[in-house]
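Predict structure. Chain length: 346.
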Amino acid sequence: MYSVINSECVEYMKTLKDNSIDCCVTDPPYGMGMEHWDHSVPNVEVWREVIRVLKPGGFCLSFCSPQLYHRMACAVEDAGFEIKDQIMWMITTKMPKKNRLKQAHEPIVVAQKPFTGSIQDNYDRWGVGKIDIDNTRVPWDGKPPSGWVKGGSRRRAFGKDVLSASDEKLICEMIIDSGRDELDKISEHLINVCLKDKEYPKNLKIIVNQAYKNCKKDVSMLYDGFEKMLKDRTESANPKGRYPSNIIGEVMPEHQKYFYAPRVTRKERGEYNDHPTPKPISLMSYLIKVYCPEGCTVLDPFCGSGSTGIGAVLEGRDFIGVEMEEHYCDISEKRIEEYIKKSLDT
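Prediction complete.
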């Protein structure tokens, strides 16, 4: 279900109930003077209405230009949002400006409406607040890597919570040569050179004590014990692929798999679409999949030619687009209908 509303966005959003929208993805004016409507970035009043209608934990994503991103981000933050990230959409086909480096990216503010309690509790109540990194992973080129440290995302120092072969040998020799009185000291020393992981010291203590008790003179059995511990501490990579990145765009061919999101083609734009800054549907679909849960309602207060709406509808989300220019409302509705028909035909 979708609707495109011909209205000034703040006036329309005032008709919406508090906590009634799941997500906001928008490409507002950049304040670059490109058109009569592009006189400034949206002010705090706009974002206060957005945060009011969003459910707690709901995300708000807004494009901007590199020159005025700071004003956009400050207005979003001043409205009460928490800035969570900045996504870079990389584009290599823009023309260089006079006396300026060639512009090759557009930043996207990633903000979230504050919530209380845990993320899971908030999600259970409101159905928002999580990002979907599982269904947006980048596929592996071949077989997924193996031997990764479990809980690697919690690791603070690389290479500090896996024992090397030389470490194993040294530990085994220490245990064989020591007396029972030294076992506690050995355990404490091993724990101090490793991360303070809850399970790691526990497993280490057990192995040190069991090694001395059951196989005091059998080094091979000690190695077996360490090998089992290390096996329990590793895992294979997620078969679905790599984590998605907060950089998206056109880069070197070998890196396209991480960031690819090309600019809008003439065919995708539509011959009748004269909007100067349409965004790629693949890009909007990607952002919606990551930040807007399935079955949710996506709001775009600056609908333009409807790329956010097309992405939302194609991904099975409801959509509300608000656009002040009647001409662009007509274009948005026509494009969304065309893409709905294409999806049904295929």
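Summary: The longest strand covers residues 54-63.
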